[in-house]
Amino acid sequence: MPFRKPLSQGTSRMPISGIRHIMGLASEIPDAIHLEVGQPDFRTPQHIIDAAHQAALDGYTAYTPNAGLTSLREMCARKVQERNVIAADVDNILITVGSEGAVASTFVALVDPGDEVLVPEPGWTNYTMLTHARGAVPVSYHLREDEDFLPQPDEIESHITPQTKLLIINTPANPTGSVYPESTVRAIVELANRYGLYILSDEAYESLIFEGKHVSPARFDTEGRVVTAFSFSKSYAMTGWRVGFAVAPIEIARLMIQLQEPYYSCAPSVSQKAAEAALSGSQACVEEMAAAYKRRQRAVLDTLKPDGFVAYQPNGAFYVLMNIASTGMKSYDFATQCLLETHVAVAPGATFGDAADPYIRISVATNDDAVIEGAKRLRDYAMSKSEG
């Protein structure tokens, strides 16, 4: 009998998403309040849908070049020049299958087995998953609540070794909602330059800023070290369209474009035309959605801060980390039991790293009434467990 070969060791070490775990449980509870998923509750704006419909009628139903439609790449180049102050032209742009495609292609282009990747903790689960998938080593740098979950350059530097290859930053951040100030972003770019590291900047939530301003590290990149991942999903409520883009130094961009062919050929052609309509049309829809997320985020803070369950100020994205340390419960246990007892679904903090186990993530990407009621039930449940 032939010897059975083992599965990929790297992918076998990938963590399971706690968000999907809770989603599965919540799907069996008809009246569950869903605060676990980072997906806009808004419909894709009508002018974007209309443009996609017309594009399909016009024959945009076939493959595009690996890098994407030139017309969309040109729009993306203008966008990052004007809004992000990034010196890029069409050759620096590739259209991807969501911003996840941009993030994943960056890993494949830059990370080899044995390399070390600096990942934020708390941080999006996929960073660690992709690191393991590449046979590389994830090294966490910690973000702390008493520092508003902002990265500290000294903390990052303490983890750098000769094997460190890639540094990941995410602003506005998932799961914290923190927005990194310019001074922090500049310091991180300078740190990467000193040690010869690449930076992957995940900016999927760039349009959802409630206080301060968004600062892209690529605007300070003079050495060709920063790759930026952008998304249409969050800003334009286009999660299911699966379209995003990457901005990269020319040598890296060429390699990433080449990698599109064996992985997924190209982003969906109709979705690319929809993305053109998103960029060229009125941005009032983005402003409307951002205003709703801000209102909901503030309602959660008003409910949770007085009792000490939140001690920092999230200023972007559509998340709040709730500190449940006073309950003495692990985040998976809290999320599971709270769902069963109060019918409120939240993401367990541990899915964003071990250091985040004293937290649960609340997504405000659902209607106002559900967010307000859910926050009250979470507060009352946590207080009952703290008292017990």
Quick summary:
This protein has 13 helices and 12 strands.
- What is the H-and-E element order? HHEHHEHEHEHEHEEEHHHEHEEEH
What spatial order of strands do you see in the largest sheet? Answer: 2-8-7-6-5-3-4
Task: Give the mean pLDDT.
Answer: 95
- The structural domain count equals 2
Number of helices: 13
Level of helix content?
Answer: 40-55%
Radius of gyration: 21 Å
Give start-end ranges of low-pLDDT stretches. none
CATH topology tier name of the largest domain: Aspartate Aminotransferase, domain 2
Through-space gap between termini: 58 Å
Kindly report the name of the CATH homologous superfamily of the largest domain.
Type I PLP-dependent aspartate aminotransferase-like (Major domain)
Give the helix/strand layout.
Layout: H1 9-12, H2 18-26, E1 33-34, H3 46-57, H4 70-83, E2 93-96, H5 98-110, E3 116-121, H6 125-133, E4 137-142, H7 153-157, E5 164-170, H8 182-195, E6 198-202, E7 226-231, E8 244-247, H9 250-263, H10 269-280, H11 284-304, E9 319-323, H12 331-342, E10 344-345, E11 347-348, E12 359-363, H13 368-387
Parallel strand pairs: 1-10, 3-4, 3-5, 5-6, 6-7
Antiparallel strand pairs: 2-8, 7-8, 9-12, 11-12
Helix pairs in contact: 2-12, 3-10, 4-10, 5-6, 5-9, 11-13
